[in-house]
Amino acid sequence: MVGLKEELLKSIWHAFTALDLDRSGKVSKSQLKVLSHNLCTVLNVPHDPVALEEHFRDDDEGPVSNQGYMPYLNKFILEKVQGNFDKVEFNRMCWTLCAKKNLSKSPLLISDEDAFKVWVIFNFLSEDKYPLIIVPEEIEYLLKKLTEAMGAGWQQEQFDHYKITLNASREGLSAWELIDLIGSGQFSKGMDRQTVSMAINEVFNELILDVLKQGYMLKKGHKRKNWTERWFVLKPNIISYYVSEDLKDKKGDIILDGNCCVEALPDKDGKKCLFLVKCLDKSFEISASDKKKKQEWIQAIQTTVNLLRAGSPPPHKEARQKRKELRQKLLAEQEELERQMKELQMANENKQKELETVRKQLEAAAARAAEEEKKRLQTQVELQDRFSLELEREKMVRQKMEEQVAQKSSELEQYLQRVRELEEMYKQLQEALEDEKQARQDEETVRKLQARLLEEESAKRAELEKWHLQQQQTIQLTEAEKQELENQRMIKEQALQVAMQQLEQLELERKEALEQYEEVKKKLEMAANNTKSWKDKVAHHEGLIRLIEPGSKNPHLITNWGPAAFTEAELEQRQKSWKGKKATSE
After folding, report:
1. What predicted TM-score, i.e. pTM, was given to this entire model?
2. Which of 70, 94, 141, 388 has the fewest CB atoms within 10 Å, i.e. the most exposed one?
3. Which strand ranges, in their side-by-side order, compose the sheet holding 250-255?
4. CA-to-CA distance for 150 and 194, rounded, in angstroms?
């Protein structure tokens, strides 16, 4: 399942990188939801919208980015994939999302369907690192397969020239550059569009659909015992047969395992080139068109059964793995070679130091030799003068002096021999210095390469600092919005305080109105008592009593604006309402 997951991730990576980014440089949440729903649909994975909403909730750590989306993709989608999905449909969905944005607008010699198949083949052959590229070795492998399928000859010299040009600029090609390369016809000159399309389809069937062999053959029925022509397709664990090569009407399958076998049969019933495929529960008699086809099918089926017994992958997948292992081995050897070169460089530096020491010693020896030569010449002059003066005095002294001169001449010859040896050593030193100069030039070349790499690193670092500045600007904008909300809250609090003051003023006015009401009420009671007393007196004098009922027995209420329009019970109810509002505001 690990290999399947890596293959799925490559197609999903193309679809994800084709999504539009917002101003903050992230993929919008709605696009990720649509992508996740489509992936669940084509991969036959149960879609869990609750988990999706929970994972994409709005918070400071929301996963609306590539790094944040990957945990959800692994946990809720890829880990649930069982392999029971249509790979072509899955790749076509991812292709639909990314092709329109990335596919070249220039006319190509291949159709959109062929471009889709080349894209799927790229995902199969590309390296397991992002951004995805296909290395020159895999490009050569693919172009050789296409050339072989077209029945043309492979132009190795032409590809070597292209490979040199490619290696000088980058490590490999992207999917869209590979499509442009094949669609340009650079390596399929002289071939028509149909031939190129058939070659792409054949390579696609082999590498992606695991079709090991296909073709028309006759099959003997199990019930009617009649012979019918069928289109057979051999895959790593199954042989499917159809009515025709369009694969629309499937008639059956022959399930292969390690217990199956295939054997040739003699001609019978007027049928030739017969062979038998034996399985545990059933056997199938098949007739090929000729002996060559018969032998090819027997060998292909037997190879497939042997791979099933050994538990090995299909040949093209095993070959791809071996090529990757070989590249990794070569890379390790290259790294080891670089390490050895560094060690040799260090040894060379040490050797240069030793040569410098020897050179200084030789210079000191030459200085000492010059000093000795000077002393010798001076001594020789002194001896000659002395010899001229004493020549006539004493012959014995002359003889001794001649002996001394002969001895000095011998020493001089030895000295000259030593000087010649020193000159030879000096020439060797010059050659060593020339080697040192060449080594320094090589070192300067490497240093320039390192400087270029440092410049590229500086450019990347500047880009990262630019992204950091954009993030700082976003944070400052959020702080400004927070300050604006704080100002609005302060304004609302001030308005609430003013309303509380007005409410307290109204409460004071209400209390004053109640006090005035009490005073007026007392005056009315006094006036009513006086009136009653006066009525009694009138009745007593006149002998008549006439009752007058001016209205309700309840006393009238007086406010600052005149007689009240409500009763005392209503006034008490309003007092309770005011007190409740006042308590709530406090």
Report:
1. 0.55
2. 388
3. 250-255, 238-242, 227-235, 213-220, 283-287, 274-278, 261-265
4. 10
DSSP 8-state secondary structure symbol assigned to residue 312:
P
Domain 213-313 indexed as CATH 3.90.1680.10 = no
Amino acid at 297: W
What interhelical angle do 29-42 and 2-17 show, nearest 10?
Answer: 140
State the virtual CA torsion across 114, 115, 117, 123 in degrees, nearest 10: 160
Euclidean distance between CA atoms 247 and 214, whole angstroms: 11
CATH code 2.30.29.30 region(s) in the chain: 213-313
Q: Ramachandran region of residue 331, left (φ > 0), alpha (ψ -120 to 50) or beta?
A: alpha
Q: CATH classification of 1-102, choosing from 3.30.70, 1.10.238, 1.10.150, 1.10.10?
A: 1.10.238
Dig out the tokens for 441 from the structure: 């030039």
Q: How many CA atoms lie within 13 A of 435 on its CB side?
A: 13
Which uninterrupted H or E stretch holds 250? strand 250-255
d(CA 200, CA 117): 7
Long-range contacts of 568-575 (CB under 8 A, 24+ apart): 575/510
- The answer to whether 372 and 411 are in contact (CB under 8 A) is no
Strands 261-265 and 238-242: unpaired
Cβ atoms 109, 184 nearer than 8 A: yes
**Which amino acid, one-letter code, is at 277?**
V
- Rounded to 5, what percent of the chain is helix, strand, coil? 70, 10, 25
What pLDDT does 158 receive?
A: 87
In this structure, are residues 178 and 132 in contact, taking their beta carbons and an 8 Å threshold? no
Q: How far apart are CA 486 and CA 481, in angstroms?
A: 9
233 vs 211: CA distance, rounded Å: 7
Cβ-Cβ contacts under 8 Å for 61 (sequence gap 6 or more): 68
228 φ, ψ (degrees, to nearest 5):
-130, 140
| Exposed / middle / buried, residue 143 (Cβ in 10 Å: 0-12, 13-18, 19+) | buried
> What mean pLDDT value characterizes the chain?
83
DSSP-derived secondary structure for 101-149: HHS-SS--SS-HHHHHHHHHHHHHHS-SSSS--B-HHHHHHHHHHHHHH
* Residue 348: closest CA among 446, 250, 258: 446
pLDDT given for residue 216 in this prediction: 93
Distances (CA, A) of 385 to 24, 290, 390: 102, 118, 9
Residue at 210: amino acid letter: D
* Cα 224–Cα 230–Cα 233 angle in degrees, nearest 5: 130
Give the residue ranges of the chain where pLDDT is below 70: 1-3, 22, 24-25, 52, 55-68, 397-398, 532, 534-567, 585-586
**Secondary structure of residue 73 in the 3-state scheme:** helix
